[in-house]
């Protein structure tokens, strides 16, 4: 049995404080307190918007300034390579929703980037400003599109399944992957990596009813692993959503924690 479908993976939302703290912990091993301190310093230098926000959206009037802001972002030293291929027409508006903006909108760079001396910023501030600018680029980029093929093969009365992916349009993931690759301790993207298949998860051309030769069979034994210790990244998520299962569906916020 062979099933094929096209999957559209939407761009990520913009940063609120917690999402920024998580990524800074994952990519740069910064604590939540340190991230907030550096983001506050960038805010005081008028390079990013107010960081103490629980919203990942911007209103329409802020979106109106985003095309001009993006021109400044892709002229930054870190993003000039992206700028040659980035399409400023038809921007993704998934993060635009005034009804989901609280006291402050999502964390984004400001229009002061163009005249700022970015080379003079401390290392921590450069890293966080780069992440915030990258997230803006990703958030307005087109979806990541791929075709997914699911195959079920019957052998000796048992069913075996596997899946393969073929990227049609890399979209926002091209930006994200380029950033990850630039990090010294870059790790593979677990969402797109398919360990079961060689050649990047691609399957050969298969058709329903086809008979395949059996190349071999092995039985593997393993042991389950205990839950991993909390990192600051996973602890932030756990605190933000603590108690959400015990809250009514119409509650304003699902969970006890706030950014």
What does the model show?
Mean pLDDT is 87; it is low at 190-198. It is globular, with a radius of gyration of 22 Å. 31% of the residues lie in helices and 12% in strands. It is built from eight helices and three strands. It has a three-stranded antiparallel beta sheet with strand order 1-2-3. The longest helix is centred in the middle third of the chain and has 18 residues, at 123-140.
Tally of DSSP helical segments: 8
Structural class: alpha+beta
Strand order of the largest sheet: 1-2-3
Distance between the termini: 47 Å
Helix content range of the residues, please? 25-40%
Cα-based radius of gyration, to the nearest Å: 22 Å
The whole-number mean of residue pLDDT values reads 87
What share of the residues does DSSP label as strand, in percent? Answer: 5-15%
Quick description:
With 259 residues, the protein is an alpha+beta fold. It has helices at residues 17-28, 32-44, 60-63, 66-73, 80-83, 123-140, 172-182, 232-240; strands spanning 2-9, 144-155, 158-169. The protein has a 3-stranded antiparallel β-sheet.
């Amino acid at each position: 049995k062979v099933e094929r479908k096209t999957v559209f993976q939407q761009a990520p939302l913009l940063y609120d404080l917690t999402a920024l703290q998580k990524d800074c912990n994952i990519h740069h091993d910064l604590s939540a307190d340190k991230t907030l301190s550096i983001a506050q310093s960038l805010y005081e230098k008028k390079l990013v918007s107010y960081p103490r926000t629980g919203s990942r959206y911007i209103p329409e009037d802020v979106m109106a300034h985003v095309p001009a802001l993006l021109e400044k972002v892709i002229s930054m030293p870190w993003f000039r390579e992206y700028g040659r291929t980035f399409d400023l027409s038809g921007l993704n508006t998934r993060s635009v929703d005034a009804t989901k903006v609280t006291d402050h909108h999502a964390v984004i760079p400001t229009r002061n980037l163009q005249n700022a001396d970015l080379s003079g910023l401390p290392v921590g501030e450069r890293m966080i400003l780069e992440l915030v600018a990258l997230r803006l680029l990703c958030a307005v980029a087109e979806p990541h599109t791929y075709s997914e093929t699911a195959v079920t093969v019957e052998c000796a009365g048992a069913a075996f399944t596997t899946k393969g992916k073929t990227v049609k349009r890399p979209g926002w993931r091209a930006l994200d992957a380029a950033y990850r690759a630039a990090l010294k301790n870059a790790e593979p993207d677990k969402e797109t990596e398919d360990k079961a298949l060689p050649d990047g998860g691609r399957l050969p051309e298969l058709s329903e009813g086809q008979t395949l030769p059996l190349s071999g069979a092995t039985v593997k034994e393993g042991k389950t692993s205990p839950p991993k210790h909390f990192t600051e990244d996973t602890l932030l998520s756990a605190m933000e959503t603590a108690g959400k299962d015990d809250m009514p569906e119409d509650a304003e916020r699902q969970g006890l924690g706030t950014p």
